[in-house]
Amino acid sequence: MDLKTATALRRLRLVSAPEAVSFLLLLVCSVLKRTTDFNAVPVMGMVHGVLFILYVVFWADAWNRTKWPLKTAAFYFVLSVLPTGGFFAERKLKRAAEDEVIASRARQEGVVNA
């Protein structure tokens, strides 16, 4: 994996969890708006919107660089629209990055899969 691909995946991973947190906070603010006088929906909506746009931009960049199959790309996109999906995306991307590091080290040391 080249540096630009690894960077694209890292950016996507780093924005996944904050996007999920902002989505959950937006849902909480929506409930509070309906049940109390507290209205943070405009602010939280803007924060979540910016993070969602960043997620989609980073997702498109990662898809372009990694040449994911349509099924994998769709999976990561669907995770972005689920309230806790960003947490799963972050964990899956982190695991994939760790696996790539292990494979890279094995290639450098000349270890071949048996």
Structure description:
By secondary structure, this protein is mainly α. It contains four helices and no strands. The chain has one domain (3-109). α1 packs antiparallel against α2 (41-66) and α1 packs antiparallel against α4. The longest helix is centred in the N-terminal third of the chain and has 33 residues, at 3-35. The radius of gyration is 18 Å and the shape is elongated.
Please give the structural blueprint.
Blueprint: H1 3-35, H2 41-66, H3 70-81, H4 85-109
Helix pairs in contact: 1-2, 1-4, 2-3, 3-4
Salient structural properties:
single chain; 114 residues; mainly alpha; 4 helices; 84% helix; 0% strand
Q: Order of helices and strands, N to C?
A: HHHH
Q: How far is it from the N-terminal to the C-terminal residue, by CA?
A: 22 Å
What would the principal axes of the Cα set say about the shape? elongated
Helix content: over 70%
Structural class: mainly alpha
Largest β sheet strand count, sense and barrel closure: none
- Stretches where pLDDT is under 50 for at least 5 consecutive residues are none
* Average pLDDT, all residues: 91
- The tally of helices reads 4
Total separate domains: 1
Question: Roughly how many Å is the radius of gyration?
Answer: 18 Å
Tally of strands: 0
Write a brief structural summary.
This protein has 114 residues and is mostly helical.
